[in-house]
Amino acid sequence: MTSRQTNLALLGLAVAAVVSGFAAFSIGTEMGRWVVVAHGVIGLAMLVLSPWKSMIARRGLAREKPGRGISMVLSVTALITIVSGLTLVSGIADRAGPLTMTQVHVGAGLASLVLVAVHYAQRPVKPRVGDLSRRSLIRFAAVLGAGSVAYLLTEGVWALTGAPGSRRRFTGSHEISDVSLIPATQWLNDRVQHLDASTHVVMVAGTGYRVEEISTFGDSVTATLDCTGGWYSTQEWSGARLDRLLGRVSAESIVVRSVTGYWRRFPRSHGSGLLLATHLAGAPLPDGNGGPVRLVAPGRRGFWWVKWVGAVNTDDLPPWWQLPLPLA
Known about the structure:
Layout: H1 3-26, H2 32-48, H3 50-61, H4 68-90, E1 95-96, E2 99-100, H5 101-122, H6 134-161, E3 174-175, E4 201-204, E5 207-210, H7 211-215, E6 219-227, E7 231-241, H8 242-246, E8 253-258, E9 263-267, E10 275-280, E11 283-284, E12 294-296, E13 309-315
Parallel strand pairs: 3-7, 4-13
Antiparallel strand pairs: 1-2, 4-5, 6-7, 7-10, 8-9, 8-13, 10-11, 10-12
């Protein structure tokens, strides 16, 4: 491939990697399997192009041009993104010092995207009509094909070696079967709350429910908590279904809000599938896992499972009226 084609292909793949990674974080249903596969193929396709890019980089470093430092840092962050992604998928290690491997992968990936934008601004490569020629498209398809082959080979390696990656869920997450090992996690700047279960009250459409009252409803569901941190756990959760607490309230949306201010919006019609849980595997919810009351939202990724629930309200705004991934 020419230098132009290599740079344009890498730019397109970098954007596709961010979009597919974002989608993989968001989708908790079986449909997400193909998004995760696509994300892996895209990342490996970028690795396939690295020999061509390294030649371009060597020529560029040999000349005094602006942006050499940015190029070198970008190379490092891109390498960290790929290595951390492979490590995360394999399950060989889930942490790098104080950071989870997911945090390393996402952080390095976002840093790489910013550096790509800066690098492109310094050394723009303007697309041409010829870039969409039949030959160019065949070459790009070959790169994606090589990425697909590399993906299948890595999957084969995990299976042959018995690596944890061979047993991961369709979202890419690894199983935690022991309820006592479920990590105490929270979204971005939230902190673990320590609420008194004997006095905490959840306001549901204007009516206050104590934790003990919620638990006496006795509703239960076996559901999979699939955290964007790279793990999942299937457990029995018990408490009260939201439709039973809300009654016949007519509205478009259900808004579940944490005492921290964190919130998520759901369709009103999903009320029967949402549970305010007070118990996990028959025991009261620990503080780190959202106790004394958290939301259980089967089929959705962990950031939908609002912890330390303080209020549940309804309104007539559409369910999609929120950021796909909350910022706080």
